[in-house]
Design goal:
Layout (H helix, E strand, L loop, with lengths): L1 E17 L2 E15 L2 E8 L12 H10 L5 H7 L4 H15 L18 E2 L2 E3 L4 H13 L4 E5 L5 H14 L6 E5 L6 H11 L6 E3 L7 H10 L4 E3 L9 H11 L3 E4 L1 H4 L1 H14 L3 E4 L6 H14 L21 E4 L2 E4 L7 H8 L1
Helix pairs in contact: 3-10, 8-10
C-alpha cells in the first residue's frame, strides 16, 4: 500500500463570523491511499484555535502515518488518539479504499437518492442586518430548523432578532437553536438563558467556556432551556473520561463533530454513553470540504437520528469539490445521478 497527503486551503465565499473571530480560509489535508489500482481518500481538517490537534507538528504526524501504513488501521487509530482529525481522515481513507466507489463509504437509501437528511440552516454572526438577511434567505430556501450563532452582537439586539422570528413563526413552524460558543460568563449565564427561554428555543450550545464543569453542571441542572455540549467534548479521549464528563455535567444534549472527537469510532463512543444516560445527540460537520462532509453525511444517515443535523456547510467555499450533495427544502440530499467532478481530486492524488 502507498500513502501520501496533500494540503488544501478552502476559501470562504464571504468572511464568516464566529465568537473566535472572522474566518476567510480553512486549511485541510487529504490522506490518499493506493493499493492494487484502488484509491482511497480521507479528509483531515482542523479548526485553528479549537481543534486539540492544532499543533506545529501536525504535518509531521501525517507524514508518520503515511510511512507506517504497515501497522494497519486499528493500530494506527490507537496511536493517533491525540490527533482526532487524522483518525477521522484515516477511517475515511480505509473505507474509501475498500469500496468499489471511493466516495460511497456507507451505501444506503441516502446514497441511492431515496431518503434525505433533515438539516438546520446556519446563520453566521454579523451585524443585525446581515443576520436578518441570512434568516430571510434560509426561510425562503425552505429551512424549518434555524441555528443562530450568538455572542457577537449586543445581547439585546440578538434578543430582538429572536423576537422578530417568533412574532412571525411559532415553535411548531420554525425550530430555533442558538450557539453561544462559550460567550457568556458563569455569573450572567443563567439570567441570559432565562431571557432566551422566552422565545421557546430548542436548545443552546455551549453557553459558557469549556473547563468549568462545576458551573456547567449547575447550569444544566437549573436551565430553563436545554443545553447542548459541543466544545466541551474536545480533548476528552478515554471512555472513562467521557463517561465522567457526562455524569458530572448531565447535559440535555451533546453535539458531535467527527473531526474534533476522533472520527466515527470516537463519536460512537460518545453516542453509546449518552444513550445510557438518556442524553440526546446530533451530528455536525466542522467546515470540511465536500469530501469530508460526504463521509459524515453518509455515516450520519446510518445512525437513524431523525433530528435535524448540522450538515449544511457544503456551499461555503469558492473552491470546494463539486459533488452529488445538494441542499434543498431544509434537507441534504445525495443526487446519485450526479458525478463527482474529479479534476481537483485527481490533482490531490498525484
Amino acid at each position: 500500500m502507498k500513502a501520501h497527503y496533500r494540503k488544501y486551503t478552502l476559501d470562504f465565499k464571504r468572511p464568516s463570523g464566529t465568537s473566535r473571530g472572522i474566518l476567510t480560509q480553512k486549511e485541510t489535508w487529504f490522506l490518499i491511499l493506493e493499493e492494487k489500482g484502488h484509491l482511497g481518500i480521507g479528509e483531515c481538517g482542523i479548526l485553528r484555535g479549537l481543534s486539540v490537534d492544532d499543533v506545529p507538528e501536525y504535518e509531521e504526524q501525517l507524514a508518520w502515518v503515511c510511512d507506517n501504513m504497515d501497522l494497519g488501521e486499528m493500530e494506527l487509530l490507537n496511536r493517533l488518539q491525540e490527533f482526532p482529525s487524522i483518525q477521522f481522515g484515516l477511517e475515511q481513507a480505509f473505507r474509501s479504499l475498500k469500496s468499489s466507489n471511493p466516495f460511497e463509504l456507507f451505501p444506503s437509501e441516502f446514497t441511492q437518492d431515496e431518503a434525505p437528511i433533515s438539516i438546520n440552516g446556519l446563520i453566521w454572526m454579523g451585524d443585525e442586518s446581515f443576520m436578518l438577511s441570512q434568516l430571510e434567505q434560509k426561510l425562503a430556501e425552505g429551512f424549518r430548523c434555524i441555528k443562530m450563532k450568538i455572542g457577537a452582537l449586543d445581547f439585546e439586539k440578538e434578543m430582538a432578532i429572536l423576537e422578530s422570528i417568533r412574532n412571525n413563526f411559532g415553535p411548531d413552524e420554525i425550530e430555533l437553536r442558538v450557539d453561544a460558543n462559550g460567550a457568556f460568563t458563569p455569573h450572567e449565564a443563567l439570567g441570559k438563558l432565562q431571557r432566551l427561554s422566552e422565545y421557546q428555543l430548542h436548545s443552546i450550545e455551549q453557553p459558557i467556556k469549556t473547563g468549568q464543569s462545576t458551573e456547567m453542571a449547575d447550569l444544566c441542572k437549573n436551565t430553563p432551556l436545554p443545553i447542548a455540549l459541543d466544545e466541551e467534548l474536545i480533548g476528552v479521549f478515554s471512555v472513562t473520561e467521557k463517561e465522567e464528563l457526562l455524569q458530572t455535567i448531565q447535559p440535555q444534549y451533546i453535539i458531535l463533530k467527527p473531526s474534533l472527537v476522533g472520527g466515527f469510532s470516537g463519536s460512537l463512543e460518545w453516542i453509546d454513553l449518552a444513550k445510557k444516560q438518556g442524553i440526546g445527540w446530533w451530528i455536525t460537520s466542522a467546515l470540511e470540504s465536500n469530501i469530508g462532509l460526504n463521509a459524515i453525511a453518509q455515516w450520519t444517515y446510518t445512525l437513524g437520528n431523525q433530528m435535524p443535523q448540522g450538515l449544511g456547510t457544503g456551499s461555503l467555499y469558492t473552491n470546494n469539490f463539486e459533488s452529488p450533495l445538494e441542499v434543498g427544502h431544509g434537507n441534504l440530499c445525495y443526487k446519485s445521478n450526479k458525478n463527482w467532478k474529479n479534476d481537483l481530486i485527481k490533482s490531490l492524488c498525484i
